[in-house]
Amino acid sequence: MKIDIRELVDASGTFESDESVAFEDPAGSEVVAPCHVRVEYRQSPGSLQFNGTVATTLVTQCHRCLDAARQDVAGEFEVMVRRGEHAAEEGDDVVALPLHQCEIDLEPYVHEAVVLATPMLILCREDCRGLCPSCGVNWNRETCACRPSADSRWDALRK
Known about the structure:
Elements: E1 2-4, E2 12-24, E3 30-44, E4 47-61, E5 68-83, E6 94-97, E7 103-105, H1 107-117, H2 155-158
Parallel strand pairs: 5-6
Antiparallel strand pairs: 1-7, 2-3, 3-4, 4-5
């Protein structure tokens, strides 16, 4: 999502875009999420402030039972662009832009917002029971005859 700052003629404003963000979800699956990005900007002499929101719905596997799961994700980002004599300060959310350069790429900030807003555990439903570790039956749909294996280390406490 590259923005040509010469096109931002107003002191402040808003623009929206639809972007695709590819990342690895916490279970290790590659996910491509279609995101809606809304960015508000505010200009002042020598700097430009971007405040963005990102919204998407992830379609991936449930981390307990491996069925399809959908998860709404919403994240935010902030970027300060400094130009000219103000460009000396640079950090994670501050970008120094040389005077001859007129484009800023917001894609890394959109990507980071989605990744940070994605929960570590994505479930098909809140009460998902998962899979049987012995036979692999999905406990949400059926039960199995497997018995939980007893851990011999707890025998002394059972007595």
